[in-house]
């Protein structure tokens, strides 16, 4: 089990590094919201702008703009570090392809059934 987790996590690390270099902040932000949503098991979860900026490799101001765009499109609601995924299907459409690569790796190496 630990070895399978290490494999999935290595995909996450590698894909995130490439993603942070190549994709716009809005797509990366959507990817993180989806990944967090997958693990939270609920539509609403806590995620600070400071932490998200760190994970996206960008400034907090860029996170504010990206999250604001997603909120304006009614894909999420965001208030004081509390995020609610309002339209997961559309959020997936906005996220870069990196989300699919990471989600597939976790499903493959760590199936839930």
Question: How do you describe this structure in short?
Answer:
The chain is mainly alpha-helical. It has six helices and three strands. The chain has one domain (2-109): Arc Repressor Mutant, subunit A, CATH 1.10.10.10.
Describe the 3D structure.
The chain is mostly helical and 113 residues long. It has one domain (2-109): Winged helix-like DNA-binding domain superfamily/Winged helix DNA-binding domain (Arc Repressor Mutant, subunit A). Helices cover 68% and strands 10% of the residues. The chain has a 3-stranded antiparallel sheet. A hairpin with a 2-residue loop joins strand 2 (76-79) and strand 3. Helix 1 runs antiparallel to helix 6 (98-109), helix 2 (25-40) packs antiparallel against helix 5 and helix 3 packs across helix 4. The chain is globular and about 40 Å long. The two termini are 14 Å apart. The mean pLDDT is 94.
C-alpha Rg, in Å?
14 Å
Number of domains: 1
Order of helices and strands: HHEHHEEHH
Strand content: 5-15%
Q: Quote the distance from N terminus to C terminus.
A: 14 Å
Tally of helical segments = 6
What kind of sheet is the major sheet? 3 strands, antiparallel
- Label the structural class: mainly alpha
Tell me roughly what share of residues is in helical segments.
55-70%
Uncertain ranges: none
Question: Which architecture per CATH?
Answer: Orthogonal Bundle
- Output the CATH topology: Arc Repressor Mutant, subunit A
């Amino acid at each position: 089990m630990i070895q399978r987790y290490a494999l999935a996590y290595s995909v996450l690390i590698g894909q995130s590094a490439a993603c942070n270099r190549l994709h716009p902040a809005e797509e990366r932000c959507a990817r993180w919201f989806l990944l967090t949503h997958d693990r939270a098991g609920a539509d609403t979860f806590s995620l600070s702008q400071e932490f998200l900026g760190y994970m996206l490799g960008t400034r907090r101001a860029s996170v504010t703009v990206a999250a604001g765009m997603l909120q304006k499109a009614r894909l999420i609601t965001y208030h004081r570090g509390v995020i609610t995924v309002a339209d997961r299907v559309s959020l997936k459409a906005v996220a870069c392809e990196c989300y699919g690569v990471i989600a597939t790796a976790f499903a493959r190496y760590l199936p839930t059934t």
